[in-house]
């Protein structure tokens, strides 16, 4: 088990506990930093149909320096849990930060779900344009290739004309045209 401080919120250290390649965050220090009831949040977590299965107890050093078992959430779920906290329910000095956090979460969710579809739509449009350019170039290439082949064949035919053939055709090469 490895423990390090992730951040300080309102003077309270928020730890990350690395245990068996999983990062866990004790929720009690976060509740203390925000001025909300740990017991109420613990009850909310254990009643949540999804988050209840992620709650873990982990041994860590508490703020008093003693080792204690603490209720933790995996790091990846902390942000979603924090999103559920109503700014009206936290201490006044934390309300603005919680409100800003929630707004940023709304923006992040919007960007995640809409920017990807915007990107895909724009990319598909550009792919279609480039596909048209590519297909036109293919047609032009085939046409140019055919013209080159015809020109090469005509060049070789003219090269093969003998002096005698030229004389027989009234000394005019254009009479040899196909």
Keywords:
178 residues, alpha+beta, Mlu1-box Binding Protein, DNA-binding Domain, 5 strands, rod-shaped
What report would you give on this structure?
The protein has a five-stranded antiparallel beta sheet with strand order 1-2-3-5-4. The chain is built from five helices and five strands; from the N terminus they run βββααββααα. It has two domains: 2-85, Mlu1-box Binding Protein, DNA-binding Domain, CATH 3.10.260; 106-178. The protein has helices at 28-34, 38-47, 75-83, 92-160, 163-168; strands at residues 2-9, 12-19, 22-26, 56-61, 67-74. The relative contact order is 0.08. The model has no long low-confidence stretch (mean pLDDT 87). The chain is α+β, with helices and mostly antiparallel strands and 178 residues long.
- Average pLDDT across residues? 87
What's the number of extended β-strand segments?
Answer: 5
How many domain regions?
A: 2
User: What is the CATH architecture annotation of the largest domain?
Assistant: Roll
Q: Can you tell me the CATH topology of the largest domain?
A: Mlu1-box Binding Protein, DNA-binding Domain
Termini gap: 90 Å
Helix content: 55-70%
Main sheet characteristics? 5 strands, antiparallel
- Please give the count of helices: 5
Shape: rod-shaped
Q: What portion of the residues fall into strands of 2 or more residues?
A: 15-25%
Written as H for each helix and E for each strand, in order along the chain, the element string is EEEHHEEHHH
Question: Which structural category do the helix and sheet elements fall into?
Answer: alpha+beta
Overall CATH class of the largest domain: Alpha Beta
Q: Record the strand order, biggest sheet.
A: 1-2-3-5-4
Please give the oligomerization state of what you see.
Answer: single chain
Uncertain spans: none
Q: Using only CA atoms, what is the Rg?
A: 38 Å
